[in-house]
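Chapter summary example: a protein plus adenine.
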Amino acid sequence: MLCFNIITIFPEYFREVFDFGIVRRARAAGLVEITAHDLREWTSDRHRTVDDRPFGGGDGMILKPAPLFEAVVALTGANEAREVAGTGTRVVLLTPQGRVFDQRVAEELAAVNQIVMICGRYEGVDERVVEALVTDELSIGDYVLSGGEPAAVVVVDAVVRLLPGALGSETSAVNESFSDGLLDYPHYTRPPEFRGLRVPDILLGGHHAEIARWRRRAALKKTQRNRPDLLERAALSDDERKWLEKGE
Ligand code: ADE
């Protein structure tokens, strides 16, 4: 069982997002438990203050270290901050300053038991939280969201569907985009002709080797068109590289 504990100032944000599709099924099957916690539970002043102005000046507000330290210690089951690392819990901060989350990171996280996620807000989080507690600073892409909450949803979804048993027997994560470093090949369903647009003939026949070859080439073409950066790192044969260069 994988356990996600999400620390946020907007716990309501998560009220229904995990109640659909694969994530809902995985929760019902006991593969994963996902809980959103209000950071204000770990404040001790009357106003339940979670943020303050930045030292050195500048715009915006910074999440204070004390409530986050209390929250992470409590949710990891440690007695104090020094013990957090020893619990083996991954402490993820969602931030545009993180390393970019991708399928490899999703696979890595799908192999652990406990993940605490901190959703950044305002201009950021006091860096001592990062220094003392955070194991992974993750960004979901090179753009700035108004908070880490949507990013936490993205990470949870991508990780949960990799848990053994989450996808059911009819689907698998093996043939998807990124599993071999390429984008997925194009898919078609009935009818074979729609508004004059035809499904490629090869897919209508039953020749499995031909279909596999068509799909591989279509995946290469799509990757070249939309994500040429992926091709540099993908495992391609010499023939495939030549074929792409010819641009057929
Ligand atoms: N918070 C704000 N922007 C973000 C991003 N791109 N990824 C993760 N967390 C964020």
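Key point: Residues 94-96, 120, 139-141, 143-145, 147-148, 151 surround adenine (CB under 6 Å).
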